[in-house]
Amino acid sequence: MPKKILVLNGPNINLLGKREPSIYGRETLASIESACRKRGTALGLAVEFRQSNLEGELVGWIQDAAYGGPKGKQTFDAIVLNAGAYTHTSIAIMDALKAAALPVIEVHLSNVHKREKFRHRSYVSPVAEGVISGFGGHGYELALEAAARRLKPSGRRR
Ligand code: DQA
Question: Is residue 56 part of a domain?
Answer without folding.
Answer: yes
